[in-house]
Amino acid sequence: MNPTSRAVTSTLEIADLVTFNVTSVPLLGWLAVACLIAYLAGAISLWARGRRWTVPGTISFVLGCLAWFAATGLGVNQYADDLVTALVFQQITLFVAAPPLLLMGSPGKLLLRTTPHVGPGKWVVRAAIAAQRSRAAWILLHPMVAIIIAIAAFPGLYFTDAISWVMATPGGHQTLLALLLVLGIIGGAPLWALDPLPRSPSFGMRMVSAFLELQIHALFGLVLIRSASGMLSWYSTEPEGWGITRAFDQSLSGSLVWTYGQLPLLIVLIFTLSKWRSRDLRVARHRAPAEDAALDEYNAYLAKFHEHEAREDNRKGSA
């Protein structure tokens, strides 16, 4: 049970969840701002020197940082102590929505292109390259790791009520959010990253990974929608005065998982199928001339063979 539940005397509105108060923004929220500033500084420095840098990638990274900040720096962060919906929104945003946007911004490439390769910058570049080539990175980017992370992040936390222990631990809430962001980036890298990776899964493996994650989220969302109130000890009390019940709160959080949480994975499936088809068409185009030449050669061989057989038959008939 949440011992710090606030006394509520008015109906909860959407505006309450998106309010901004500079004094209540946690460190994780300010970290999103710092990453945004650093990325934009790097992109602008490249443009100022006349060097190319992707505008779509920059927009993607900016949107990722904004989603990250929205989940941690706005009013929803304060209400996560009292509403399952608010907490699930934070988790989905940091684990499922923000990582793809951040990864498609190619922050690794930007780091290597903007960091000086002399002085202290040399050690930053060496550390980044060493991390990219490390055995640990190779293991973490296995597609099965993403599936294990998805199971631990949602069913593992909620079905065992471990989420209540996390919320009751001082600093547990913010630590969980930071961990989910990191795990979301690790799990999403094989599917979304444009930076060079130590391993690149096949299109088939990407399809399997995305499909299994969809099923995990679907099961988790369905349980939240259909479960009775009081499923989680931290959220066992009714949110009286907000015009909602705990059962509605849990059901709404499950609906978020079914919609908001599934959309990025559906995009992965569509994108992967499209890339797979494009790859096959490209291979077929390159293969067609070689296959045609081989077929012509084989047909010429058959023609010569039949011509030889015909001559042999004529010779035997003449004899």
Please explain how this structure is put together:
By secondary structure, this protein is mainly alpha-helical. It has one domain (14-261). Helix content is 74%, strand content 0%. Helix 2 packs antiparallel against helix 3, helix 5 (84-103) packs parallel to helix 11 (172-192) and helix 5 runs parallel beside helix 13 (246-259). The radius of gyration is 28 Å and the shape is extended. The model has no long low-confidence stretch (mean pLDDT 80). InterPro entries: Caa3_assmbl_CtaG-rel (IPR019108). It comes from Leucobacter komagatae.
Overall form: extended
The DSSP helix count reads 14
Q: In which range does the helix fraction lie? A: over 70%
Structural class, judged by helices and strands?
A: mainly alpha
Number of domains: 1
Rounded mean pLDDT is 80
Beta-strand percent range: under 5%
Main β sheet profile: none
| Topology order in helix (H) and strand (E) letters | HHHHHHHHHHHHHH
**Global Rg:** 28 Å
The low-confidence parts are: none
How many strand elements? 0
Q: Give the N-terminus to C-terminus distance in angstroms.
A: 107 Å
